[in-house]
Specification:
2 domains, elongated, 6-stranded mixed sheet, 19 strands, 7-stranded mixed sheet, alpha/beta, Purple Acid Phosphatase, chain A, domain 2, 474 residues
Length: 474
């Protein structure tokens, strides 16, 4: 049996694949031994999709080798042809599957027979090995057919760059409402990959929308020097107007650490900062002396790039504490002071657009006094709309938790967000969550989010905190 299985596998490896044109793409289809079965579609260099299409000891691999320039351009120039693409794709896949079945049968028989002849040196036993290999392949094919699950295409697993853009191959809602059979979804996949390849080859230079203010939210850098290069890259890539750091830039807040902050001056955008519990007053004083840095404390508002920001530093400089009696109460008191300052500025006709605190417990106290509150501290991102209408955005660790990243089994990701504001209303329109693999990893993911009021079918007027609504603080 070992000879049969090894010979069959070698046969599939050497000759068990077929080149198949699928719509405008040139693909290679291959059967591979597998304990779990399924289908894997490799879209180089973008990543891969894994589908739980069947349960059998063989897996179908489909490699998208390249886009045929003539067929692709014909689709781009004549989009009306996309309507008939599903039938073309179905025929192509059917023809390719049939060719693959024939070639795989020949491959496993030839491989098992050749290896059997080399091992047993008896033609009859070698032919028996080939026949057994063909029987096993037929049984595997029958099992795959019996367990075929065409709806698996509705729940693909993304890897590589495709993880950042699952909508490129359709989302579950649009698939269910627009298509009812597997072959049509294959056509959708081909269509969108075609468009994607075309877009990446002709993508124009990015031009920022002058009606939008872009704010980069970072937090909890914790002395990770790699963070400055990442931040600078995001500022350049997204044409960021303002950087907001919600604290814990340092680890211990000592004077010896201050030199770590010097790159802030060259990040390419104004840097708005509030003190975290790992940042000392020495840290704050040093930052106040750097150019292009705006320190927020005691609720005093500052206007930067057309946005009004106000914040308060963390009331406790406790870098070595894990739990401290009265810590929550001190955060709530600090948040209440910030809420009072925000209320006073709104009464004076100079309302604040964004409030910033380090700990979420403090940020929650400004509910109803400002449209958006930013915080950090938790080392993972969260978003919620509070009782009186304020949206709270908690950022993850832009430093990947600093040196703490090497303490756990898995490194913490590096997280940041791009916030998009309307220049006239100064209200949040959307945000992108950016996640990079932590220490030793090279993965990247970007996901777009819209406030409920900006989603399709919603009231186009963004909601704001109710005027005069009392703060959630006692």
């Amino acid at each position: 049996m070992t000879v049969v299985l090894l010979g069959a596998w070698l046969g599939l490896l050497v000759v068990g694949n077929v080149r198949v044109p699928v719509g405008p793409m040139n693909t290679t289809m291959t059967l591979r031994p597998s304990f779990t079965g399924g289908t894997k579609i490799n879209v180089s260099p973008l990543g891969a999709l894994a589908l739980d299409s069947h349960i059998a000891p063989v897996r179908l691999d489909v490699n998208v080798d390249q886009l045929d320039p003539d067929r692709s351009q014909a689709l781009v120039d004549h989009p009306e042809r996309l309507s008939g693409l599903q039938d073309e794709v179905t025929e192509d896949v059917g023809r390719g599957t049939l060719d693959l079945a024939v070639r795989s049968s020949v491959a496993v028989v030839a491989g098992a027979t050749a290896l059997g002849l080399a091992v047993y040196r008896r033609p009859r036993r070698a032919l028996a090995a080939g026949g057994l290999a063909l029987t096993l392949l037929a049984a595997s094919g029958g099992t795959a057919y019996a367990t075929w699950h065409p709806d698996s295409v509705l729940e693909p697993k993304f890897s590589g760059l495709l993880t950042s853009a699952p909508s490129l191959v359709g989302n579950a809602r649009s698939i269910v409402t627009e298509f009812d059979v597997y072959q049509k979804e294959l056509a959708r996949l081909v269509t969108n990959v075609t468009k994607l390849y075309d877009a990446t080859s002709t993508l124009p230079a990015y031009a920022p929308d002058p009606s939008t203010i872009r704010v980069l939210h970072v937090s909890d850098i914790h002395l990770n020097p790699a963070s400055w290069k990442i931040i600078a890259s995001l500022v350049e890539q997204y044409k960021v107007d303002v950087i907001v750091d919600s604290g814990d830039t340092m680890d211990h807040g000592t004077a010896a650490e201050n030199g770590f902050l010097d790159p802030i001056e060259d990040l390419g955008a104004p840097y708005v900062w509030v003190r975290g519990n790992h940042d000392s007053m020495l840290t704050q004083q040093y930052l106040e002396g750097l150019k292009n840095v705006h320190v927020l404390d005691d609720g005093r508002a500052k206007t930067i790039k057309g946005m009004r920001f106000a914040g308060i530093g963390d009331p406790q400089f406790t870098p070595d504490r894990s739990k401290s009696l009265g810590a929550l109460q001190s955060q709530e008191l600090a948040g209440a002071r910030l809420a009072t300052a925000l209320r006073d500025q709104r009464t004076a006709g100079t309302p604040v657009d964004v409030a910033v605190a380090h700990e979420p417990a403090a940020a929650r106290e400004v509910d109803g006094e400002v449209p958006l509150a930013l915080a950090g501290h938790l080392h993972h991102d969260e978003t919620e709309v509070l009782k009186y209408g304020t949206r709270l955005r908690i950022e993850g660790s832009t430093g990947g938790s600093g040196l703490r990243a090497i303490e756990g089994k898995h490194p913490d990701p590096i997280e940041a967000s791009i916030l998009y504001f309307d220049r006239d209303s100064r209200l949040l329109q959307a945000w992108d969550e950016i996640e990079l693999g932590g220490l030793g990893l090279t993965t990247a993911e970007v996901s777009r989010h819209l406030p409920e009021e900006n989603q399709p079918g919603a009231d186009p007027s963004p909601s704001t905190p109710t005027e005069g609504t009392p703060s959630a603080s006692p």
